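Researcher: Batch entry, complex prediction.
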Amino acid sequence: MASLTLKETLVRLRDGRLNARELCERCLARANKLSSLNMYISRTERGARQQAERADQCLHKSGQEAKKALEGIPVAFKDNLCTRDAPTTCASRMLLDYRPPYDATMVSRMLDSGAVLVGKTNLDEFAMGSGSTDSIVGPVKNPWTLLFQKTPHRYRFRANQSGCCQLETSPKLSEDEVKVRRRGLHTSASRLSQSSTVLEPADQSGSGLQRLSFEDDSDWLVTGGSSGGSAAAVASGTALVAFGSDTGGSTRNPASYCGVVGLKPTYGLLSRHGLIPLVNSMDVPGIVTKTVEDAAIVLNTVAGHDVQDSTTVTDPYQPVQLDDRFSLEGVHIGIPKVKYSSSCCL
Amino acid sequence: MASVVWKMLPLRNPCKFCAKFHRPSQDVFARHARRMSKKASSKSDWQSVVGLEIHAQINTASKLFSGASTKFGAPINSQVAPFDAALPGTLPVLNKDCVEAGVLTALALGCRINQVSKFDRKHYFYADLPAGYQITQQRQPLACDGQVNYVHVTSGAGQTSTAEMRTCRLIQLQLEQDSGKSLHDHLDKQSLIDLNRAGVGLMEVVTQPDLRDGEDAASFVKEVQLLLRTIGTCDGKMQEGSLRVDANISIHKAGEPWGVRTEVKNINSVRNVSKAIDFEIQRQIGVLENGGQIEKETRSFDAESNETVQMRDKEKLLDYRFMPEPNLPPLHVYSSGNVPPGTGAGSNVVLETVQRRLPDLPGTIRDKLQHKYDVPLLSATLLVTEEGLLDIFESLMADGSRDLKTLLNVLLNDYIGVLHEHDCTAAECPIRVQSLGEVCDLLASRDISQSTLQKLLPLLFEHPEVGAVEMVDRENWRQIRDRELIEKVINEVLSNPKVMKKLQKGGARGLNAVMGPVQQALDRRADPQIVTEIVENIYKNLSK
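Model: Structure tokens for the complex:
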């Protein structure tokens, strides 16, 4: 289930092969298990369950009325987008207890389309960063870390505290370590202490799954940033779409590091109402999904003029239509010639 | 010595030149005033220059950039939208009514509307400014230039006033946000912040330094208040804070370059505009004549001591770090020829649409009164200023038979007096217009005297259902104008040798000697004009 795309999930939800409540539970459980990756600052378990319940009711209605575009789809929002149901901290002590009295337009449009809010994802503090390493709840760890650690490399790249890449020769791994690492991304490993905040501690997933953990604190890879939590959330299957923000690459960067699709819409297409700003004239909400088609579906749901954001374009929004028979024939791709300094690794 | 009418200066107003309480006659005082003012002006040939920054709260239902209400007197912090409290993630949304109000005001002030204007952030830190910056229009304001023709009323010696037209040019008109209100509790050493006012739209009108002194500035402010109230964009109540005036004052000697200017804030009434500016001018004269220098500073007007004082913490020149407001696109005021087609048409501000809302401005009405009815400027000013009076005037002049002077006398002296005594407007006053008309006619035909008028109007206020004529007859106030009767009584009075002796001496004393007993005999209702005529005739015949 975790490897389904949003489009595929929508199909299965509509025809009954999947139900929203089950999907929601799986995502919440997974988020719980992978809490050591530090993807979420807060998870809205109770709210998500209620929304999933409602989504199921709407999906099972046999009437002719139009179904909502994203009924039952789990979504995560970067913690600089305001949500009424969850604290919005921007990964900073300044807003640690801040509960906005309103929803960001992106949030309300998604919820109105039937999406299920699973949680608020981790980021660089106030979106200032490109590694998702400078957060008061700790850095976000790339879900692919474990996959790469499966094969002991002679040369390995480790992240140090500030998220910089450093060349390092790897020590010989013990047999246990190899065993552990062979298991791959989606299985459990030995315990660790770090975990993210859960809003309703009573609702533990409690199905016997162990929490994922790391051998030592520095044994992980960065997600990139500043929307690292959102990219990791989609890459690890805890949400089918996540919203980040993009000012100078903050959605595209982590999407690339986490192996998922990151879309930075043109400024003025999506509303910034409720997006706590970094640079008002450059910020946009970003969309992270597994495939480009998923991104198009979500973009078509949330794009368009918002009265509450005077910088959104007033022309009526023309929904994106992707060509089925996509081909690169005739497409010109430009690659800038960049000079690299000798000390940098590649 | 010519016949002098003795008039007393009321005790509470000392002579403005020598600060003494005089009780001389009108003429004596007039001479004294002329002498003293000559002395004052020759002592120092200082010229004062005054410019004003007027902040007028825009009278719209909601604030400039948010939907919170602007109603006056609401409970503390009950009209605060998330944007007004600068909650993270909120954005400004421009209020179209505010823009139209700004454009309407600019048109009334004769300004040139900028088709494109821009918003900026002006940064400074204060507890009543949650965002840490005020959104204003520094680079490109809504409107430029313009001028106001206002009536300057000089209160002359005694009761006389003269009116003349003056002009003050404007620099610009811009839209900006108001800040919240801070109440400093010195006892508990805390400041309490009320954000109800934060974000309310303001129109800032900046004048050229064309004004001369306190009275000049006060007249100008009164005219602006009247204009704003007439077009309905601001209620102009300085006591409620919907109109605030900051004054920039400097002095220089004739022919020399202008001096350093100081700014005076915290002026909360039109009278205080005059007092604050005059005090500041005198203070600056004092400083310079004692060899000191004027600092470019901001001072606060203390209404209790009538002085300007240094504001405690505002000495350095602040760097406001102006930057364009990134969350608001440029503001367009379209003319009906170049409105862009497509969606958003309902939210476009079109100049001609706003222009159609312009009512008759006070200046136009004053001109009409002067030309159509021959009303003098001062009277025209009063008619236009007092709410509702103009309508009464026009309806009473409608049939064209009323005597203008009498009507003006009744309306502007006695009727206004009654309104002020009962603290009501012309609209609220129960006296019927018809009754007022009757009163004018009675006065014009000398059926009642001036003193009767002063008794009649209050009585009509109490009993508006009774007509004026009816009331006069009821109270038996009609003047006796029967010449034969009066002559008879006069002759009776003159049969008294003592009275006759006094009359033969002549002069005012002689007249009074006869007038007294005659009025007594006739129940004080004899027409004094007729009595005087007859007595003077008799006197003339006597001296032949």
